Amino acid sequence: ETGVTQSPTHLIKTRGQQVTLRCSSQSGHNTVSWYQQALGQGPQFIFQYYREEENGRGNFPPRFSGLQFPNYSSELNVNALELDDSALYLCASSLGSLAGGELFFGEGSRLTVL
Amino acid sequence: DQQVKQNSPSLSVQEGRISILNCDYTNSMFDYFLWYKKYPAEGPTFLISISSIKDKNEDGRFTVFLNKSAKHLSLHIVPSQPGDSAVYFCAASAGGTSYGKLTFGQGTILTVHP
Q: pLDDT tens-digit profile of A55-65?
């Protein structure tokens, strides 16, 4: 059974650029959630995708967007990067979005915006 | 607005003793609570959860207690082991199709000394 994998693990961008982060969900999981973890803080919910449709969004601006593909892998895109976007971005997969659907997290993508 | 709070940034205990990690929440709609553990350079891993219809859930050395009237939950680890040293996050969700959309606390760094 393959766990959640994310790429790239580290990247550096400059303010105003765009970035795409990728996530492969755990085998058999149809739901992917993205979280942003700033230094010293807990993860913050960005959005969730269930069967290729956005299924809820946290308090993030529209320049944060996502996609889920038929194989349930997912992308997080951030446009017009700002310095405050520097964070660890975590992807989590689960089977469905109902109670008992424990989230399985990847190791994250560390984004630094200069 | 921090809906889930872990007021102790760090906790240090001796091996074999009890570790008690605390978490408070403000949103009355939360009805499912989880604890995650995070080692450096790894994603958070699920530890234990509790539904609001219960006040206690045990899994081996780990027990979670929920006090709904006080909007407080705690994680007890007995006996504590050096391998338990990690950052512990409590998280909550608000039911329905929201179970995958977790609100996390800031985390507590647990250090267990041999």
A: 889 999 999 99
Asked if B43 and B56 count as a contact pair (C-beta separation under 8 A), the reply is no
A24 shares contact with chain B (CB less than 8 Å)? no
Instruction: List, for residues A86-103, the tens digit of each pLDDT value.
Output: 999 999 998 865 555 578
**Cα B78–Cα B30–Cα A110 angle in degrees, nearest 5:** 75
Q: Chain B interface, mutation test: which of A45, A55, A89, most B Cβ atoms within 10 Å?
A: A45
The neighbouring-strand residues paired with A90 are A35
Place of tokens 């553990």: B37
Reduce the DSSP state of residue A83 to 3 states and report it.
helix
Residue A52 main-chain phi, psi, to 5 deg: 75, 5
- Under an 8 A CB cutoff, do A45 and B95 touch? no
CB contact under 8 A, B89 and A104: no
- Contact (CB<8Å) B97/A42: no
Structural Rg of chain B based on CA atoms? 13
